[in-house]
Amino acid sequence: MKSIFPDNFLWGASSSAFQIEGAYNEDGKGLSVADFNSFKKSHIQADTRIAADFYHNFDEDINLMKELGMKTYRFSIAWTRIIPDGDGEINQKGIDFYNKVINKLIENNIEPFVTLYHFDLPFALVKKYNGWESRETVFAFERYAKICFKEFGDRVKLWQPHNEQNLIVRVEERINIYEEKDQLKIDKMRAQMDYNMCLAHALAVNACHEMVENGKIGPAVSSSVTYPLTSKPEDVYAARMNDNFKVYYMLDMHHYGEYPGYYMKYLNERGIMPYMEESDKTILKSAKMDFIAVNYYRTNCAEALESDDEHPFGSREGTVDFSMYGLFKMSMNPNLKASEYGASIDPSGLRVALNEYYQRYHLPLIITENGLGAHDTLENGRVHDDYRIDYLKSHINACALAIEDGVEMMGYCPWSFMDLLSSAQGFRKRYGLIYTNRTDDDILDLKRIKKDSFYWYKKVIDSNGALLDDK
Ligand code: BG6
């Protein structure tokens, strides 16, 4: 059977530092916001202290990547290993660790694909500057990015500045807004942090282009495809605005160097316009992303939502799937089945997302996250995760259809390479192709056990996507 996927298609898998590495304070690593948040839940679930212990097992884990046939591995560098306090001394042991990982990947013909910041801002920057609210953090990030480009850029050619900026700004805990209760103040802080992250993104894009020969860099977007709950025109508009406020305001800023009109109107009317310097414009407009990485899990519905005296225009309710008064109210799609953790399963939404992003920006796309979180069961040394195979198969098929539609795709990396620390459910919710033998309260032997999805995905890679049905 002939494959629709290009010959150099990057079949891979993904992870992130705080979710997989463990060794949270070893070899000089500093504390991150992700560590801090995870320790608050240590009494109910696994935390970042050990996670999947990739730090001590990377050799064996990369051998498994090789066995799987991976062409790329998308992972993140922990800023706090490279610069423990965010903007001070460089920690050589952190650089040594990632050199070992990168070299081992390259020896095995696996292209390293690095995210610089995946939810794990150095906690010291929170204490010093309230994190992303300050421009000091922007320049600290630029310095950190430049250190990584200098140290690893001879071998790492694919980069992402931030993972899902458009999602973390919705979740107060992830952007270290802990005490504040006043919604308007929270929104103001959020808008400033979001803008500062855009500026940091642009500085990293420009530095990558200057410092990394043949380097390519682009954002990882938490994708959103929103269906109108009814065919009423106001609900259709609500669905469009939900995608605008969840995704396009940010991608437009990365692409055009300025926020779109509807977003400026929101910032103005809500009275939360961030501080911007005139000279930022040149930086923002000059930074051209090379690709867009798409993280895709699910879709939602929206309907119109009126504002009133108690809920002024632009005020929100909810976090990741927030509703916004005056624009949209979110809900689940009654026509779709959901995972056991409540995420709608919608492969055709992926085809829509890929077409939309490609048509808007005409940049190559790569999936850097897509997967099914489930409560896997280990039975006689095997994990029969047919449900995951079905999920991945239907989504890879959606990529094939998008390619037929004319979308340029560079690769596909499911989330996740192995079971790792899921943000809200620890090790109860698993995404991996490989089972990590530990539970939330017992680290057991941390043995790596290949799931049925591992063997299936190996055949997919070997056949360049032609053998999707071969279990
Ligand atoms: C993505 C994140 O948004 O979703 C990952 O980039 C995360 O870090 C993944 O693990 C799945 O979400 P969760 O909450 O199930 O871990």
Question: How does this structure look, described?
Answer:
- By secondary structure, this protein is of the alpha/beta class.
- The chain has one domain: TIM Barrel (Alpha-Beta Barrel).
- The chain is 40% helix and 13% strand.
- It is built from 15 helices and 16 strands.
- The strands form 4 sheets. A 9-stranded parallel sheet has the order 5-4-3-2-1-14-13-8-6.
- Strand 13, helix 14 and strand 14 form a beta-alpha-beta unit.
- The protein binds 6-O-phosphono-beta-D-glucopyranose (BG6).
- 6-O-phosphono-beta-D-glucopyranose binds next to loops.
Largest sheet features: 9 strands, parallel
* Count of discrete domains: 1
Helix content: 40-55%
Instruction: Give the rounded overall mean pLDDT.
Output: 97
Derived structural class: alpha/beta
State the fourth-level CATH superfamily.
Glycosidases
Beta-strand share of residues = 5-15%
Q: What gross morphology would you assign?
A: globular
Q: State the name of the first-level CATH class.
A: Alpha Beta
**Roughly how many Å is the radius of gyration?**
21 Å
* Total helical segments: 15
Question: Are there runs of 5+ residues with pLDDT below 50, and where?
Answer: none
Distance between the termini: 16 Å
Listed once per kind, the bound small molecules are: 6-O-phosphono-beta-D-glucopyranose
Q: Largest sheet, order of strands side by side?
A: 5-4-3-2-1-14-13-8-6
Number of strands: 16
CATH architecture: Alpha-Beta Barrel
